[in-house]
Amino acid sequence: MPINYYLFLSLALFTIGMVGVLTRRNAIIIFMCIELMLNAVNLLLVAFSKMHHLKNLALNASVGTDGQLFVFFIMVVAAAEVSVGLAIIVMMYRNIHSVDIQFLNRLKH
Amino acid sequence: MFSFPNIAYFIPLLPLLGFLVNGLGRKHLSKGAIAWIGSGVLALAFAASLVVFLNLPSGGPTLLNAFDFIRIGELRIPFAFQLDALSSLFLLIITGIGFLIHVYSSAYMHEESAEHYGRYFAYLNLFIFSMLLLVMGANYVIMFIGWEGVGLCSYLLIGYWFRKPAYTQAANKAFVMNRVGDLAFLIAIFWLIARTGSVNFVDLPAALSSLSSSDITWITMLLFVGATGKSAQIPLYTWLPDAMAGPTPVSALIHAATMVTAGIYMIARSNLLYTAAPLTLNVIAVIGIATALLAASIAIRQNDIKKVLAYSTVSQLGFMFLAIGAGAYGAAVFHVMTHAFFKALLFLGSGSVIHAMSGEQDIRRMGGLKKALPITYFTFLIGCIAIAGIPPFSGFFSKDAILLSAFLKSPILYGVALFTALLTAFYMFRMFFLTFGGTFRGTDEQKHHLHESPLAMTLPLMVLAVLSVIGGWVGIPELFLHGGERLIEFLSPVIPVVEGHAISHSTEYLLMGLSTGLVLSVIFFAWTRYRQYRSEESSAPFARLLENKWYVDELYQTAIVQPLHRFGGWLRSFFEPKIVDGLIQGVGRSIRYISQQIRLLQSGQTGNYALWMVISIVVILSIQFFVRK
Predict the structure, then answer these.
(1) Which residues of chain A neighbour B604 with C-beta distances below 8 Å?
(2) CB–CB of B40/B157 below 8 Å?
(3) CA angle in degrees (0–180, nearest 5) for B495-B499-B501
(4) How confident is the model at residue B629 (pLDDT cuts 50, 70, 90)?
């Protein structure tokens, strides 16, 4: 499969995620959109590293594997982030009985 | 320590000490103590000056280096004193006459309260200190310190009776006009430093070769402008008549005998430069003779006894500048000396008259004081004869030397100078006859009060009268006495003697005879005219012109003072509130406005922040991608 397909898919996912973050008010949806953006990047990393690996296989068998490794790191960090983020959302709901981020502008006053 | 040359340090230090003691202790000391301290330090300074004068080595100057006043890079300006013929002569004049005037003041100012009495003597001592610094300084910078000091003391003493607004205004006028001249002096000093790197008088001969002729002309011109301020020449002379607001002994000391001759001293000190600048000399000669004539013409129609003397001083200073312009520096210094004697005498005499008349200064209301004030009368007469220039009184010799130098320079100058000398004789004897001749014209109360002044006042008068008679004998021309012109010879280490008078003895006799004869006839004319008082009210336009001092004050008022006032008013009413304040407040206001706008960005909405973040990243990336290739 040409790399272009991966690129377009990843770009589409990232844009959906970004627009979601910017437009939605529900904290859980925003949280999911952030996950979407992370996964779009993951997809891109995997696709490019696979491409590199196939291209330079003759030179070195281990080329292009670090991108794949990096994806695992991102997954781990994202999992950690999810746990913290969800905890924040739970606390937020406990305090203001809502998950609407519009109510979170209290710092201003 | 008490021997030459170190004793010279005491000459300025003693009056400084007197200033400090009298100035700080004026609330605690009695009047007697103040007078003794004030006069005593002067007597000691005079004694020290005599030691210096008598021990002066012939030839080069003696330099006393105290410390380095300024040291920046290559420039080194020492705080040094220079003792030579010129400065030692001035030291004697200043401390000697200063002492007499201090003694006189102790009686003249007796009605002041002790505190003000102390203030007066402190100022006088400070003045003497500054004047001594001026003449002893071995370079222009030290001279300038003294120069500013005497200007300050002049201001303080003119405004001594500071409760009268007119007097403080006169003080301000003197100070401001002096500042105009001082600025030119300062620029000249900077010019000299920039071109030669030295301001020492001893370096002047060497500096002369490294200066271009235009430099010399500019420096000498600027120095001369400085001198016109201090020595009351056109165009900066109008402060001196107003300076008569000060106590009369002050007028005698500062505005007649010493301070106003500072300009002459400065130019005589820089005579090497001036000799190399013929253009400046011509300018000085013209200004000098013009001032002499103008002031003499004004003096004819003045009725205030001190104003007449003030204009006479301006006129005599003009004579001295004429001599300088003619290249006869020695004659100028000679006239400074004799003028110091007879003008101090005349001023102190007028002070004695004013004292007797209970403060009256208008000569129209005097008359017939001959009987009541015999000593004042007699000494005043001597002063008048001396200033009029009748042999063998002192004024004759110095004025004759000046007239001779003017004759050598140009017959026109001589003619005008002679005419001015006749005017001098006329107005002096007009004043003399109006004051002492005729019958008393004051009020009965004043008449009852008439009395001769105490000994402390008459003694200085007598001493000065003797000096006014014999003071000129140090400069008797070669013509009368072989080995004459001792003063010129004495000054020759500082002021090189120009050899070769291109004038025959018979011409010299003729000129002297002419001036003496004319002066005598003018005095006779004044006698016939003013022997009996008659009202002088005249509506002739020329007389009114003279009475109003050629309207010079009014001219300055409209041409300089009022435009400056208006400019100041414009600055206050428009420039300051609109432009300056507008600029400063505009900066504040615009910053506040911008902050208010930027503050809106911080809305507290997380979505907004994220949006700005995305926009910024897009912008940065596009710059990276499209612009920074």
Answers:
(1) 105-108
(2) no
(3) 120
(4) low
Paired with B316 in beta bridges are none
Could you report the per-residue pLDDT of B51-75, keeping only the tens digit for each? 999 888 877 788 888 888 988 888 8
Tell me: cis bond preceding B5? Omega within 30 of 0 counts. yes
| DSSP-assigned letters across all residues of B286-354 | HHHHHHHHHHHHHHHT--BHHHHHHHHHHHHHHHHHHHHHTT-HHHHHHHHHHHHHHHHHHHHHHHHHH
| C-beta of residue B95 within 8 angstroms of C-beta of residue B46 | yes
Does residue B261 sit in helix, strand or coil? Answer: helix
Distance from the A72 Cα atom to the nearest Cα atom in chain B, whole angstroms? 26
For B607, nearest residue in chain A (alpha carbons): A22
The shortest CB-CB distance from A105 to any of B604, B610, B611 is to B604
Question: Could you tell me which residues come within 8 angstroms of residue B15 by beta carbon, excluding any fewer than 6 positions away?
Answer: B41, B42, B45, B125, B126, B128, B129, B132
B237-249 mean pLDDT: 89
- Retrieve residue B518's tokens: 């004319």
* Residue of B602, B604, B611 lying closest to A22 (CB–CB): B611
Q: By the CB < 8 Å criterion, does A41 face chain B?
A: no
Mutate to test the interface with A, among B599, B603, B606, B618 (most CBs of A within 10 A): B606
Rounded to a whole number of angstroms, the distance from the CA of B620 to the nearest CA of chain A is 17
Question: How far is the C-alpha of B415 from the C-alpha of B404, rounded, in Å?
Answer: 11
Extended beta strands in A12-108, E state: none
pLDDT 10s digits, B190-216: 999 988 888 888 888 888 888 888 889
Q: Tokens for B295, please give them.
A: 């002031």
Give the closest residue to A37 by CA, choosing from A50, A24, A18: A18
Q: Give the CA diameter of chain B.
A: 115
Q: At what angle do helices B305-325 and B329-356 cross, to 10 degrees?
A: 180
Domain A3-108 has CATH 3.40.50.1820: no
pTM, rounded to two decimals = 0.80
Cα–Cα distance list, B156 to B42, B97, B321, B343, B346 (Å): 20, 20, 27, 22, 23
DSSP 3-state assignment of B65?
strand
Query: Which residues of chain A make contact with B605, given a CB cutoff of 8 A?
Result: 102, 105
Contact A101 B606 (CB under 8 A): yes
Q: SS3 sequence, B179-245? A: HHHHHHHHHHHHHHHHHHCCCEHHHHHHHHHHCCHHHHHHHHHHHHHHHHHHCCCCCCCCHHHHHHH
